[in-house]
């Protein structure tokens, strides 16, 4: 097989969920965010593994993602939809027992008129200015909404990956003010909020990136392991170049391995000048020349023999290590992993 192998370590995923669950008290429920196809790792297998571990509430971005999770899990677990009740979602919400997080008065009207008595949650905007009801809007709707018995009131933090950022305290204060006196379960913390301590936990936390091995959960075990096979290797002489545009020139005789992946597989072109892959014994092998759509040149001069494959992600290099090379975030690395990889499950 010439495609790379993406191994998804479900044991590590579950261990990360349990570790984040242990950061809050026994009275706090720990849910799981499985949007974007389980952060690129396969929502169905991720959700099933977490459900076996004890997760009973799941969060997705849109109703169509909720449909995939319901198919994977069957009846029982609660599936919450961040985008709320959008036009055209009514049938899916009803038939699949999804719980929309209502973001506006318009969504509230749509939900109670189309599905009277059906469960829903409410999302509040405490300063991120992305989704949710603003304070004035919520003040006007609060009494009516609470009479409909929402299952959850939530908000989302803008700067939880920076614990000392003043926005965190501001959003906590706003959330407390907007939910004061309400007998409804509340949720503010995703991964970063969980790590900031109990005042952010409320009745439910909803970790996302930390489950999949990413920052800000520095103690997370890596979940994604990616190795790429070597198709061919060759010796080139000093003065010869590698790849498109002649951007890298050998200063001495060099052995170049061509591996079977590229930017079509989520190994971003910008990584080229800084990226190394790893041989089986943990020896780094730098990329030479441009990353192209399907192929990458890698310097293996210092290896005793041609390797069968080289590692992009694993114990030597995690998603945030790659992200740091090009000033992005681990989320983008994970969700960009391409569809050509052979996917294998560990600990299924």
Automatic annotation (TrEMBL):
One of its GO terms (biological process) is D-alanine biosynthetic process. It comes from the Bacteria. It catalyses: L-alanine = D-alanine. Its cofactor is pyridoxal 5'-phosphate. The active site is at 35 (proton acceptor), 244 (proton acceptor). The keyword Isomerase applies. The keyword GTP-binding does not apply. Pathway: Amino-acid biosynthesis; D-alanine biosynthesis; D-alanine from L-alanine: step 1/1. GO terms for molecular function: alanine racemase activity; pyridoxal phosphate binding. It is an enzyme of class 5 (isomerase). InterPro entries: Ala_racemase, Ala_racemase/Decarboxylase_C, Ala_racemase_C, Ala_racemase_N, Ala_racemase_pyridoxalP-BS, PLP-binding_barrel. Keywords: Isomerase, Pyridoxal phosphate. GO terms for cellular component: cytosol. Its EC number is 5.1.1.1. Residues 223-346 form the Alanine racemase C-terminal domain. Substrate binds at residues 130, 293. The modification N6-(pyridoxal phosphate)lysine is found at residue 35. Catalyzes the interconversion of L-alanine and D-alanine. May also act on other amino acids. Belongs to the alanine racemase family. PANTHER family: ALANINE RACEMASE, ALANINE RACEMASE, CATABOLIC-RELATED. This is Alanine racemase. The gene is alr.
